[in-house]
Design goal:
Layout: H1 2-22, H2 37-41, E1 60-67, E2 89-90, E3 95-102, E4 107-113, H3 120-134, E5 141-145, H4 163-183, E6 186-196, E7 202-203, E8 206-208, E9 213-215, E10 228-230, E11 237-245, E12 251-256, E13 270-271, H5 275-287, E14 290-295, E15 301-302, H6 317-331, E16 336-338, E17 343-353, H7 356-361, E18 368-378, E19 381-385, E20 389-390, H8 392-401, E21 406-410, E22 419-420, H9 431-435, H10 442-458
Helix pairs in contact: 3-4, 5-6, 8-10
Length: 459
């Protein structure tokens, strides 16, 4: 009887999803309520019944993507006013992409979704469903957010009215994409490379020339830019992986550090994936490939500098996506063949210590929190996950000390814990420092553990 109820529920969700994805951008709001934890568990999909999934021998890659747009009135993430900032129009689709990679024995599922963050409860729910349906362990699942500030605030979970209903469609979608990506697996060769994105991303924290803090994202244009500089230089390296498949379209994965808020403000209510939407579209149409973007260690970064007047507004953020896509396309011919090897993956917890100000403000009795980190490897290519907004300098440290030829730093992944700035930022203060939940040095400790994990799976 329970299985029957589950099947009927999934059928209803499937019909509901079809209605959302095919209807016009503006939909009439429906009755909403908070779903219980038990009701959420009912979204766990049964084993696929459309025939067995056959994993090819040797190295292979598969791709799947669907749009899941919210109804009007759905709370949008990115700012502190999610309950009052509600969607009213779809500017471009909110996409969830899944890339499956297999060595014939072990399989990775690499998700990229147009959201601000994925909470650890969402990651736990998705990985439970994936393991029940396909036998793929949690360590082999990457859930990376592109960090748009204009998509459903799913990191609030079912406690926020409007998000509960959205998640009832989101969870089955993750399983459906995994199945489709696995069925799309085809033997492939691995290619890697990188390029520079000069002048396309900037550190949004500013210092006066004497080294004192000048301000952050709210820097006044009345200040003389000649008297200021960025706190650090940005990481301008875009890393690229290509799975060259025999008969199907090649799959390209890009890893880059940028804070995509160009297309939204705290008062805007249009749903958008920001510049990432036109980035993917440019790469796929002009390169005749399939593309997945993986947001990197993007702490304190934006796609414009107030010192250079190189501004990206809501009107032209899509143009910036085209520019970044053109940079990737120019690098594709120079990618080099890389050994695919065996797939390996591990997870570990980092014990982060809360700072006293955060504990007092939130009446916490706990002094520490366990942050889950993952490390995965495909031959000489590695992925590490950070369940927070990771400082770009700490991301560079991991890449420079990794034993792998290429390491994707995937922040905003498998959890959501706000900003963890670099140690050098704390004396300067500012928004990122003041909102950080943990003591100074936490970011550096996590970066060191990431390197240790990479060395462990390398051995």
């Amino acid at each position: 009887m329970k299985l029957k109820r589950t099947v009927l529920l999934l059928l209803a969700l499937s019909l509901c999803f079809s209605a959302v994805s095919c209807a016009p951008s503006l939909l009439p709001p429906t009755e909403d309520r908070i779903f219980t934890e038990e009701e959420e568990k009912e979204t766990v999909a049964p084993l696929p019944e459309t025939g067995p999934i056959v994993i090819p021998e040797g190295f292979s890659a598969g791709f799947a993507r669907e749009a899941l747009n919210p109804e009007p009135g759905t709370p949008l993430g990115g700012y502190s006013n999610a309950e009052n900032r509600k969607s009213h129009i779809i500017r471009d689709d909110i996409m969830l992409t899944c890339v499956a990679v297999s060595d014939g024995e072990n399989t990775l599922l690499l998700y990229s979704g147009d959201y601000l963050n994925f909470s650890v409860s969402i990651w736990n729910q998705v990985t439970r469903m994936i393991e029940r349906s396909f036998g793929i362990p949690a360590a082999n699942v990457l859930l990376n957010a592109t960090h748009t500030h204009a998509s459903p605030a799913i990191y609030y979970g079912s406690s926020l009215v409007g998000i509960a209903r959205y998640l009832q469609e989101f969870y089955p979608l993750t399983v459906r994409l995994a199945e489709n990506a696995l069925r799309d697996l085809e033997n492939a060769e691995l290619y890697t490379g990188s390029t520079r994105t000069q002048g396309l991303n900037y550190v949004r924290r500013y210092l006066y020339m004497d080294g004192s803090y000048a301000g952050g994202s709210n820097l006044s244009f009345g200040q003389d830019p000649k008297l200021m500089r960025h706190e650090t230089d940005p990481d301008e390296t875009m890393q690229i992986i290509k799975f060259d498949r025999k008969t199907k379209k090649d799959i390209v994965l890009a890893n880059w550090q940028c804070h995509p808020t160009a297309g939204s403000t705290s008062t805007s209510t249009a749903v958008t994936a920001d510049w990432v939407s036109t980035f993917r579209e440019t790469v796929e149409k002009k390169g005749d490939v399939l593309c997945s973007f993986h947001q990197g260690a993007a702490g304190t970064l934006v796609s414009y500098s107030k010192l250079s007047s190189n501004l990206v507004s809501e009107r032209n953020c899509y143009k910036r996506g085209v520019e970044i896509g053109e940079v990737l396309l120019a690098a594709l011919p120079s990618l080099k063949a890389s050994e695919s090897g065996k797939i390996r993956a591990i997870t570990k917890d980092f014990t982060a210590t809360y700072n006293e100000a955060y504990r007092t403000k939130n009446n916490l009795t706990a002094t520490t929190k366990a942050l889950n980190l993952s490390a995965m490897a495909i031959g000489d290519v590695a992925f590490v996950t950070a369940p927070f907004e990771m400082a770009d300098t700490n991301g560079v440290f991991v890449k420079e000390n990794s034993p792998y030829q290429m390491t994707f730093i995937c922040a905003y992944s498998n959890g959501s814990n706000g900003y963890i700035p670099a140690l050098h930022s704390f004396p300067n203060g500012g928004y990122e420092v003041e909102s950080c939940r943990f003591v100074p040095g936490t970011g550096e400790g996590i970066a060191s553990l990431m390197v240790e994990m990479l060395k462990e799976i390398r051995r």
